Amino acid sequence: MPPRKKNGIPDRWEDYQAVGKIISGTRFIAFKVPLKPSLCRHVERSQAFGPWELMQTMEKDGQELGLIIDLTFTTRYYKPEDLPDSVFYLKIFTAGHEVPSDPTILSFKRAVRGFLRDNTHNDKLIGVHCTHGLNRTGYLVCRYLIDVDGIDPKEAVELFNSSRGHPIERENYLKDLHTGPKRSNDGMEESEQEPIRGRSGSRHNILDSPAHDRDRHYDRHDYNQFPRPQKKNCRPPHVWFILGSNFQMPEGTTFICTNNSMPSYCSGRRRVVSPRDERTLV
């Protein structure tokens, strides 16, 4: 993940256009992470982009989101409950900078296949974002196009770049897409986790309310789907997500180790990453 500014805005977040265009021949549309109002107040009004600005943009273009796949490795930017109840939300914790693991790729494929299977009767879109809606997003969308749809790697990357309005930047992602092996599609028709339905009600009720009321709206929900360290009087011990080579996180289940020590049941797991700042630590 890019470094974070003191005001909580991701570094270079303002440098990228908010929403791309639909990737031709697919239901994918990429965008940068929407920010809750308490973060958006730190950017110019014209740069503000949160869940409701996202929905406004889609409505203006005559498009409808059906599913948002959030690839960021944190839960601090916005809450799924802040989305309208017409949209489903799915979180796939994806560490930045490194090529996504095979289990992460399979989770993404399962999410997409499940949505397409349940929405054959409509044209609802699959929105995908990481921090900038570019590198992790671009890699996983292109990986799906290559592995599942059989699109040539070069064509897949060009399709994504032209639709997003920015090119994928990370060389290791591009190298793997162009010359790396295709990943297996075995098991992609199986269900893994159920998306969460938005619960904010009418979009217009929120957009038309005063800014301080919108902030209260964003703060009133519990966000227990993805556990976080409890705040205390002093800095809490680090809490790590442990991602093994065959990592799968059942809904509501987290492998953790605290105080920088790994219990015996964590031994042999491949890497330890921090959900607070999306950095690979070891």
**Structural class of the helix and strand makeup?**
alpha/beta
The percent range for helix content is: 25-40%
**CATH homologous superfamily caption of the largest domain:** Protein tyrosine phosphatase superfamily
Number of strands: 7
Report what the structure shows.
There is one protein chain. By secondary structure, the chain is an alpha/beta fold. The protein folds into 2 domains: 13-204, Protein tyrosine phosphatase superfamily (Protein-Tyrosine Phosphatase, Chain A, Alpha-Beta Complex); 227-282, no CATH class. The protein is built from 8 helices and 7 strands, in the order βααββαβαααβααββ. The chain has a 5-stranded mixed beta sheet. Strands 6-7 form a two-stranded antiparallel sheet. The chain starts with 27 loop residues before the first strand and ends in a 9-residue tail after the last strand. Keywords: Hydrolase, Nucleus, Protein phosphatase, RNA-binding. Belongs to the protein-tyrosine phosphatase family. Non-receptor class dual specificity subfamily. Residues 170-186, 210-223 have a biased composition (Basic and acidic residues). It holds the Pfam family DSPc.
